Amino acid sequence: MTDLPRILNFRMPAEATPAGFRQQPARVLLEVDRLTRRFEGAAEAAVSRVGFSVGEGEFVALLGPSGCGKTTTLRMIAGFEPPDAGSVRLRGADITALPPERRGIGFVFQDNALFPNLTVAGNVGFGVRRLGRAAADRRVAEMLDLVGLSGLGGRMPHELSGGQQQRVALARTLAPAPPLVLLDEPFSNLDAALRAETRQDVRKLLKAAGSAAILVTHDQEEALGTADRVGVMHEGRLEQIGAPDELYHNPVSAFVASFIGRSNILAGTANGMDAETPFGRLPLSRAANGAVRLAVRPEQILLDPDPTAEAVVIGREFRGHDQLFWVQEGGRCLLVISGPGPQVSVGARVRLRICDCVVPLS
Ligand code: ADP
Ligand code: MG
After folding, report:
1. Res. 239 pLDDT band, cuts 50 70 90
2. Residues with Cβ within 8 Å of residue 294, at least 6 apart in sequence
3. Residue 70: CB within 6 Å of ligand 1?
4. Where a domain ends, among 221, 238, 254?
5. Residue 320, domain CATH
6. Which residue lies with its CA nearest to atom 22 of ligand 1?
7. 46 lines ligand 1 (CB under 6 A)
């Protein structure tokens, strides 16, 4: 894999948005409304009332643990799985009953299964043959250029690296210019380093082609690092959908708070914009009232050595750029992340403070 040509130089984070600048919301491309699917003999629905929309050109990730219903949701959008209830609309038209080939949606699945007996150019041109020879050839050249594989059109799939094959699969999908591309764990066959690189390439390619995408993954880093918005699924339901920062800073549920990064969950009593907590009165990120569970990020807790304090460090992991502490305090074990210093050893007594607003959970 070391010979992978880096013709596309896509290592920079995609499209940094200047602070305070809000982009116009894109026109809606896809609307998924209360999609539901229960497999025969199953006690629970695999997908239950899932609803969200995708804007033109938008990159949305569906994130959740194995078995939460991501693939089933994608298959219903693609038309491979009939929903028991709910609808799918593309550019305003109801496509719920249309077969896959009439939806005009592109797919890239886990094993990207190129046609082994066709050249790279043959694979990429497969969906555009109806354009006629000359136009199809032009389109193939354009797509190979877009994915950084110009000049490799005559190769056979087995003569390419895994990352290159993935890009050919993407070029083949993008050649007919679908407004929407569905990607189901497309990077899971690649090793870690190549995966991180390829996913940024893919994001850039889709943005360059103007295609919207839904990426299904169980890898939070992949979702947060590539998508404009991330939908978090849990047990067949879409728990929350939002920009990566919004999910991290304002999770609505304990599941989202723990699945996106790590969280300590505390009990408290909310009163509007603040709450009584084991750490005193703290401001809330949004209003709540009554008994609540509160999410506190490990980096929101400050830890100071203090021999007279009650809390004790019971575990420590030094990670270079930061360190993790497990701290026993009042019958609870809290996770704290601090900078690389000062050195605090296991067994040390520490004072804990929270110096930020905390998040009330539903
Ligand atoms: P994910 O992609 O998030 O891992 P899936 O959508 O593949 O989850 O599966 C969701 C649930 O539906 C799982 O419990 C799975 O076992 C079940 N399931 C998926 N496909 C079928 C099927 N064809 N028949 C019966 N059960 C299925
Ligand atoms: Mg799946």
Report:
1. very high
2. 265, 266, 267, 268, 275, 277, 282, 284, 358, 359, 360, 361
3. yes
4. 254
5. 2.40.50.140
6. 39
7. yes
Pocket test for ligand 1, best of 72, 184, 239 (most atoms within 8 A of CB): 72
What's the CA-to-centroid distance between 307 and ligand 2, angstroms? 50
Nearest ligand 1 atom to alpha carbon 47: 10
Per-residue pLDDT of 257-270, as tens digits, reads 999 989 999 999 99
pLDDT tens for 199-224 read 888 898 889 888 999 999 999 999 99
Instruction: Give yes or no for residue 80 CB within 6 A of ligand 1.
Output: no
CATH number of the domain where residue 32 is located: 3.40.50.300
Cα separation, 208 vs 236, whole angstroms: 32
Same domain for 234 and 269?
Answer: no
Indicate if ligand 1 lies below 6 Å from the C-beta of 82: no
Q: Which of 36, 38, 71 to mutate to test the pocket of ligand 1 (most atoms within 8 A of CB)?
A: 71
Q: Which domain holds residue 79?
A: 4-104+178-254
92 and 219 in a single domain? The answer is: yes
Which ligand 1 atom is at minimum distance from the Cα of 66?
4
**Residue pointed to by tokens 């210093």:** 341
Q: What would the pLDDT profile of 96-119 be if each residue is shown by its tens digit? A: 999 998 999 998 876 668 999 999
In terms of DSSP bridges, do strands 359-361 and 280-296 run parallel, antiparallel, or are they unpaired? antiparallel
Considering the domain architecture, whether residues 270 and 240 belong to the same structural domain is answered as: no
Interacting residues of 298 by C-beta distance below 8 A, sequence separation 6+: 262, 263, 264, 324, 334, 335, 336, 337
